[in-house]
Amino acid sequence: MTRKIPITGRMNDDAMDEWIGHINGNLTDVKIVPLDELSSEEKAQVDCAVVLNPDPAVLESLPNLKWIQSLWAGVERVLSEYSNEDVKIVRLIDPQLSKTMSEGVLAWSFYLHRAMPTYLAQQATRSWDQPHLPTPQERTIGLLGLGQLGKAAALRLKENEFNVIGWSRSKAEIDGVETFHGADGLSDVLKRSDILVILLPLSSATRGLLDPENIAKIKPGASIINFGRGPIIDDDALIAALDSKHLEHAVLDVFSIEPLPKEHPYWAHPSVTVLPHCSAPTNKKTGAKIAAKNIAEFVTKGIIPTGVDRKLGY
Question: pTM, whole model, 2 decimals?
Answer without folding.
Answer: 0.92
